UniProtKB/TrEMBL annotation:
The keyword Transport does not apply. Residues 1-29 form the signal peptide. Keywords: Secreted, Signal. InterPro entries: C1q_dom (IPR001073), Cerebellin_Synaptic_Org (IPR050822), Tumour_necrosis_fac-like_dom (IPR008983). This is Cerebellin 18. It comes from Scleropages formosus.
C-alpha cells in the first residue's frame, strides 16, 4: 500500500514537471508504468531520478555495513576486559615445596578475574585474544626455623617454556622477596603460569606471593 501511494505521488510530480515544460519533451512522454518496470527507455527524467535512487541506496547500504564492522571492532577492543590478580591462599607460616619436579604455583586466592581467563585451580592464565599482555609476580619467603636456607627459584612459563625467573640461595636472610614485571606477546590459546623449580621452596606468610596480569591491547 505504501509503495503504490509513493509511486502515484512520484507519477503526479513527474506529470506536473512535464506539463510545466515550455518546449518539446526531450524524450518520450511520461509513462507511470516505467516506475514499476524500471525500463531505461522510459522518460529520461525518471531515468536520472532512478539512477540517483539506486546509487543512494547502494551508498546507504555501504554505510550500514561499515557501521556494523566498526561496531564489531569496538566490541573486540573494549567489549571484554581481561585482568586478574591472585595470591597463594595457604595458611601462614608453612612451606610450599620442595618437590621432586617443577610444579605450577597454586595462586588460588583470587581477588580479581575479569574475563574469567585465569584458572585458580591450575594457576594458569589462558589468552582469549592475540595481543600484548602485562604480567607481574612477586615472590616472598620467610624462613620458619633458625638455620634454614633461603632456597627459592620461580619462573614465569609460556606454553611450557621459561621466559623470566627469580631465585635466591643464601643462609644470611631470614626473609626475602623479589618482583618481576614484563610485557609478553600472546596468541589466542597461549598459557602463562608461574612454576616452582624442583628442590626449591617458599615458606612463611605465603599470601605475599602474588601473580597478576592483564590485556594491554589486542592485535
Amino acid at each position: 500500500m505504501k509503495t503504490t501511494a509513493s509511486t502515484a505521488a512520484f507519477c503526479l510530480l513527474g506529470a506536473l514537471f512535464l506539463l510545466s515544460l515550455p518546449t518539446t519533451l526531450p524524450c518520450d512522454a511520461w509513462d507511470c508504468d516505467c516506475v514499476f518496470k524500471h525500463q531505461r527507455s522510459c522518460c529520461c527524467v525518471y531515468n536520472k531520478l532512478g539512477r540517483l535512487s539506486v546509487d543512494t541506496f547502494h551508498s546507504l547500504d555501504y554505510i550500514s555495513d561499515s557501521l556494523s564492522q566498526l561496531q564489531e571492532d569496538i566490541v573486540s577492543l573494549t567489549g571484554e576486559h581481561y585482568a586478574f590478580k591472585a595470591s597463594i591462599g595457604q595458611p601462614s607460616y608453612r612451606c610450599f615445596g620442595p618437590f621432586t619436579r617443577n610444579v605450577p604455583v597454586p595462586y588460588n586466592n583470587v581477588t580479581l578475574n575479569d574475563g574469567r581467563a585465569y584458572n585458580p585451580a591450575l594457576g594458569i592464565f589462558t589468552a582469549r585474544f592475540d595481543g600484548i599482555y602485562s604480567f607481574t609476580f612477586t615472590t616472598y619467603s620467610n624462613l620458619i626455623a633458625p638455620g634454614m636456607r633461603q632456597y627459592v627459584q620461580l619462573q614465569l612459563m609460556k606454553n611450557g617454556e621459561p621466559v623470566v625467573g627469580v631465585w635466591e640461595d643464601n643462609r644470611e636472610d631470614s626473609e626475602d622477596s623479589s618482583t618481576q614485571e614484563l610485557l609478553l606477546p600472546l596468541e589466542r590459546g597461549d598459557q602463562v603460569y608461574i612454576e616452582l623449580v624442583a628442590g626449591r621452596y617458599l615458606c612463611g606468610d605465603l599470601k605475599y606471593n602474588v601473580f597478576s596480569g592483564f590485556l594491554l591491547y589486542p592485535n
